[in-house]
Design the sequence.
């Protein structure tokens, strides 16, 4: 169910798609906070990508990428639950 991405730019596009889906529901501050946190995680992932290019050490990047993937997956599941309950 989680969407695949290879870079922070692609992850940002996925987050934008999720934001568009999120706007279908009535205002929910928790959703907005989760989306903002996801955007912050993606920004940090972009910084880690730059470090990988500079140092060729990708352990931190891979860990952050897994965190972003799981956050996107949780957010998608939450949106699905909201869609089913409305």
Sequence:
């Amino acid at each position: 169910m989680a969407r695949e991405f290879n870079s922070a730019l692609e992850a940002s596009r996925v987050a934008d798609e999720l934001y568009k889906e999120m706007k279908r529901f009535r205002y929910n501050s928790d959703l907005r906070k989760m989306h903002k946190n996801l955007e912050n995680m993606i920004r940090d992932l972009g910084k880690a990508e730059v470090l990988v290019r500079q140092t060729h050490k990708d352990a931190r990047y891979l860990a952050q990428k897994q965190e972003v993937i799981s956050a996107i997956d949780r957010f998608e599941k939450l949106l699905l639950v909201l869609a089913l309950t409305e």
Observations:
- The chain has three helices and no strands.
- The mean pLDDT is 90.
- Residues 70 and 81 are 17 Å apart (CA to CA).
